[in-house]
Queue: 2 jobs
Job 1
Amino acid sequence: MANKKSNPPKMMVPNWNLFIGLVKFTLCAIIMAFGYLLLEDDINEWINRKPLPIGDINKRSSTSDEDDWNKTVNGIHLRSGLHADPNLQVIIGACTSCHSSKLITQNKATREGWKQMIRWMQKTQNLGDLGKSEPVILDYLAKYYAPKEEGRRQNIDVEAIEWYVLDLEE
Ligand code: HEC
């Protein structure tokens, strides 16, 4: 009799464990499936990544890219887009930490006008005191980013234009 009474629980225990095991397994599978769905693109990208050609690796380890980037072409410093000048690093250091140098290259002003813009930034945009750099910066700005006197654009020099025939067939 005692055996018969204790039999049902003995039977239940392994079944219950099996059930919990199945639930755990299913949960794991679901979590993994979700993870895969989330990362699918990244995983595929990683699997299909192209090996870097040896040339690129060499380029990376040498400083030639960096040199190219620091180059000056037609008086424009490529990295910053600012006009090349012995004092350029002062301007880069003082003026490009908060915003792009484009804000400078898109503006034109007299020395006084630039001074006012700097004052405005100091008043309203947390620009600090520029100290000894200020006259250097103002000289630079007034020299390269002065208002142009010849109007909005230079007149077109018809003689200098190289005309070409627009080929619509292609
Ligand atoms: C502390 C941060 C900071 C620094 C450093 C800074 N600026 Fe600015 N500047 C700003 C902010 C903020 C604006 C507003 C940007 C906007 O409107 O999107 C701005 C705007 C400008 C503008 C546009 C003004 C206008 O009227 O549209 C110019 C030009 C400019 N800055 C030039 C300079 C120059 C030159 C220097 C170096 C002396 C400099 N900035 C340094 C924060 C700074």
Note: The CA atoms of residues 1 and 7 lie 10 Å apart.
Job 2
Amino acid sequence: MSLTVSSLRQRYGSALILEGVGFEIAPLSCMALLGRNGAGKTTLLRTLMGVLPSEGGTIRFEGADMTRAPSHIRARAGMGYVPQGREIFADLTVGQNIDIVLRNHRTAEPDAARDEVVALFPVLGQMWARRGGDLSGGQQQQLAIARALAPRPKLLILDEPTEGVQPSIVAAIEAAIAALKGRMAILLVEQYYEFARSLADGYVVLDRGRVALRGEGKNMEADGVSRFLSV
Ligand SMILES: Nc1ncnc2c1ncn2[C@@H]1O[C@H](COP(=O)(O)OP(=O)(O)O)[C@@H](O)[C@H]1O
Ligand SMILES: [Mg+2]
């Protein structure tokens, strides 16, 4: 398995946010993680990446126990993360945003890695010398995805990549993610599931921090996933 999560538990203060969360993502497969606002999706991803230390359970990636590993070790092992809200470096140029991760990861053939992400999002090539903060929201999201992809992750984790993005760029982002399918494992959080359904091999629905439903992507409709997503 690319990623195996079992019995994961997380809390903020006294509030239990995740309990008993488990799932697996096979290499090169795509998993949709669904659930209402506040269900615990972002908390789960932050725990997977080690941004939050887990309170219980195990996280294995490519056969290695990552449960206690710091974030940069998980990233170096091949876990790429696009956080909700992007978190690019606003004061650095597009090129500097990319080059920093290539250097941190000591990525082999960095010039080729740069070309690969620009081929995926040509607008970043046009904007290469601009400050990240001067890009539109959708362009910043493309930059955030490019930054996660540049070191060639084995698993790409995306937290609501089309949230707050103008419709013209949503299509470009969806096309890029679809193009990545089959080249790496993908864990995709989408609150609205039309796009996720078109892509996902499997899905997991979180409801109040627990796995409420899981199944194959092609059965999402028949399984009644949408009842867990409406407010
Ligand atoms: N930093 C935080 N401190 C305390 N509670 C938080 C924090 N971040 C999120 N929460 C709470 O944890 C729960 C899960 O939030 P989150 O993981 O962001 O859900 P989702 O991404 O599914 O919308 C919510 O009840 C939210 O209010
Ligand atoms: Mg969230």
Note: The first helix runs from residue 41 to 49.
